[in-house]
Amino acid sequence: MQQNHSVTEFILLGLTQDATTQKMVFVIFFIFYVGTVVGNLLITVTIKSSRTLGSPMYYFLFYLSLADSCFSTSTAPRLIVDSLSAKRIISYNECMTQVFALHFFGCMEIFVLILMAVDRYVAICKPLRYPTIMSQQVCTILIGLAWMGSFIHSIAEVILALRLPFCGPNLIDHYCCDLQPLLKLACMDTYMISLLLVTNSGAICTSSLVILMISYIVILHSLRNHSAEGRKKALSTCTSHIIVVILFFGPCIFIYTRPPTTFPVDKLVTVFYTIGTPFLNPFIYTLRNAEVKNAMRKLWRIKIASESKR
Q1: Which residues cross the membrane (predicted)?
Q2: Among the four 11, 48, 79, 143, which has the fewest Cβ within 10 Å?
Q3: Of 97, 212, 72, 232, whose CA–CA distance to 161 is shortest?
Q4: With bands split at pLDDT 50, 70 and 90, how would you rate the model's confidence at 2?
């Protein structure tokens, strides 16, 4: 791969330069990351092992948990390690790989959230046709399209990053590699690339949020014709989805839909949606979902019973 720059590595400034605060960053985000991986792994294992969680909603939740784990892994481990390192060096190729992973799994999460909203719309508004419309084959095709769309988006982001020439300095005022902080280091006019970034990432975030909000408005409107028990169950599920959508899309839109201007709060906002939201998702979906909690209890009882027989 031909590189049009003289910089072969970058130095990440991280969240803070204070030694005491760096130790706090290590402890806090180590706990967050372990909680994210364990929580999402527990959901994926439960869904795969349980016969009662075979509906499309849990099929999509499996991939959301998978995307959450990978999305957090694209940034959290380096942040944790760098918080104890004197020099936070990342090579050019590692930086481009992180850009790809960050956008691939972030976009995958967006598409899966849309698929979950579509699933709820069909289940609530078209209940008689639900088994036909959301068949296993259709769900598999939809997830395949989500993977493909995420790949195309992330490749586009990496291509934009590869077009940036870096002549120095090589200090990235962030804890991870992304296009916004990289644009500040490029020794060229970045207006067009900034515009393409907003068109690509910004348009995906904004249009997806609009689609999701419209779908949930339609769903909530249609609940008027359901029984009180049906409304309660549907509202519980939809509320969980809406909370996740707000927590994820709010920071994303703040970061990717504005001109190429960076603010001190950008790093904290990025932390929230790349590490905070994947950590909260398992709690949101399990604490508000009786079926998942019951399946987890059953799985643990079977595990404990099998261990006691040995």
Answers
A1: 24-45, 57-80, 100-118, 138-162, 191-222, 234-256, 268-287
A2: 48
A3: 97
A4: very low
Residue 1 domain-assigned? no
CA 266 to chain CA mean position, Å: 17
Q: What backbone phi and psi angles, to 5 degrees, belong to 135?
A: -70, 165
Residue 270 lies in a domain: yes
Contact 72, 274 (CB under 8 A): yes
Residue-range definition of the domain harbouring residue 139: 9-308
> CB under 8 Å to 157, separation ≥6 — which residues?
99, 100, 103, 179, 197, 200, 201
The answer to whether residue 4 is domain-embedded is no
Please give the tally of structural domains in the chain. Answer: 1
pLDDT per position as a tens digit, 215-238: 888 888 887 777 777 677 777 777
How much is the pTM?
A: 0.88
Residue 187, both tokens: 């020794």
End-to-end distance of the chain based on CA atoms, in angstroms? 55
Does 157 reside within a domain?
A: yes
CATH number for 147: 1.20.1070.10
pLDDT band at 18 (very low <50, low <70, confident <90, very high): confident
Contact by Cβ (8 Å): 46, 301: no
What is the Cα–Cα distance from 216 to 4, expressed in whole angstroms?
Answer: 46
